[in-house]
Amino acid sequence: MPGVSDQCATVSTVPKIFLKSGREKSLLRKHPWIFSGAIERVAGEPGTGETLEVVDAAGEFLARAAYSPASQIRARVWTFARDEVIDAGFFRRRLERALASRRGLGLLDPRGACRVVFAESDGLPGLIVDRYADYMVCQFLSAGADRARDVVADLLMELCTPRGIFERSEASARRKEGLPSKRGVLRGDAPPAEIEVRMGHTNWLVDVANGQKTGAYLDQQRNRERVAELARGAEVLDAFAYTGGFAIAALTAGAVSATLVESSAEALRTAQREAAANGVAERCRVVAASVFDELRSQRGDGRRYDLVVLDPPKFVHSAEQVGAGSRGYKDVNMLGLQLVRPGGLLATFSCSGHVDAALFQKIVAGAALDAGRDAQILERLSQPADHPIALEFPEGEYLKGLILRVR
Question: Distance (Å, rounded) from C-alpha 204 to C-alpha 194?
């Protein structure tokens, strides 16, 4: 298969990565990343995204991986099996396995939305595939995934029969791989400006060409439903609301009212259309403003809510940003806690992978102390089953949340 498998080459000409002595330990634990600092030398002249063999210092086979000369993660492992060739059959097997997992969990509602492939956690490093009703969206975020683009697209058309596949390969991960951004129709029909999908008990309008990520935040579907179950009869504040996922789910479940605060006026216009489509527009108020500024203003006005939801964007993009990002999380949680009525609830989230659950709890505890509020953890929340976490790849766990009773 051109561009994907180089296994037809003779063994002597297959490029190889030789690891430094003792640096094979993570691969023996089946972690899929090989950092540049672990490499002793590269034999041959592999192209960007080309599959090569990874061997230890003694030349013993460890894995087959995709080469990325521009990235600090110099190679990402496709397979640890010596006899597994990286060809169209390999990608078919991995895609079929990912689909079978979602199908077995009842996640492939033809009217709904689902993450079909979650990169390393599904054994396909750098590949994200989301489905929105009749359309699919792909992100090829690593050199190896990018090289396999056409093979993956053809297989998705065969296995999933979507009306069309759209590409949104634009994340910062592409820049780290030395790859340009790409956006456009990959196969089939161009998606409409808005695709209507069913998520939980609500209907959503998704713009896969221009919306956040691949069009929507699929990782919060289950958490929205859980928070909504606690919102009956409540006045709700949805901060960093985007298109109102938490607020509209809460209103559909019986919340009295919801205030959406979001800096993007365009996102709020979509939220208003979605509120109308779900029959809750009259109980929905939108505020286009900086969330930090608006929460401070509402605090000064003495405004209080029964349920406050904080779902900010990623504040920490690298290990170097943990300190500054943690301060951001602490500030917004302090404000959120001060806006909860005594006995009310705070649902707070972080999608920063560099902030683990223990650190996030510590940050929120510090925010409660500064806010002068006591709180209890009622539940811990995480990412849903279509965003699985491979045991050998803890980096796949990034979303964490707390539901707090605030006194």
Answer: 9
pTM of structure = 0.92
The DSSP letter of residue 163 is S
Torsion from C-alpha of 100, 103, 107, 110, nearest 10 degrees: 110
Q: CA–CA distance from 268 to each of 90, 254, 260, 288, 342 (Å)? A: 43, 21, 8, 7, 29
Strand partners, 64: 53, 79
Q: Is the pLDDT of residue 211 over 90?
A: no
Strand blocks (E) in 145-267: 164-169, 182-188, 195-199, 202-206, 235-239, 257-262
β-partners of residue 81 are: none
Q: H helices within 256-339, ranges in order?
A: 265-277, 291-300, 322-338
- Report the distance separating Cα 134 and Cα 244, nearest Å: 23
Q: Which residues are catalytic?
A: 351
Selection from 154, 216, 177, 200 nearest residue 67 by Cα: 177
Pairing of strands 340-350, 305-310: parallel
For residue 3, is pLDDT > 90? no
